[in-house]
Amino acid sequence: MKLQDELPLDHRLRTVYRYGAGLCGLILLVFGILGLIDQLSFFDTTGSNIAGLSSNGLLSVLSLIFGAVLIGAAIIGGNVASTIEIVVGGLFILSGFVNLAVLDSSFNYLAFRMPNVLFSFVMGLLVATFGMYGRVSGGLPHDNPYWRQRHPEHARTTSPDRAKTPALTRGGSHSAPRHP
Fold this sequence. Notes:
The protein is mainly α. 55% of the residues lie in helices and 3% in strands. The protein has a domain at 13-132. A two-stranded antiparallel ribbon has the order 1-2. It is elongated and about 60 Å long. The termini are far apart.
């Protein structure tokens, strides 16, 4: 079984995934371009100030790479964009923790400072949230394409018009309160 087998192919959430990936990718591309224009030293551990963050040539190139990956995800869209956003968001959060550990050491190859660490956490959470939007939750509505894909037996008995009332469960008569 593959992860993609459980995901719906076409749904309205794809625009959220596209815009989220595009916006975050554009921010990273601008940061990377500003760093390269400033001709920063590639492995300088002290870094230079670019848009309020410390940067060096390596961080600028990595920003361009991840920005391009997110822009590519925005172009592809759909489940691919969602999955890429979740992975990239997780990598940003991991990067925040790793760079926090090496902040004032000679291993600070990306010239991170505390604002960079905070940016990494915020960008990681933002990108991952865009990727998980409407996909990960314990209480997805019944008209959500991910819920319908995971519960095909209930999806057939629950029409989109009645999506707010849960389908009958096996052996029970669970129903939501009716509103006039």
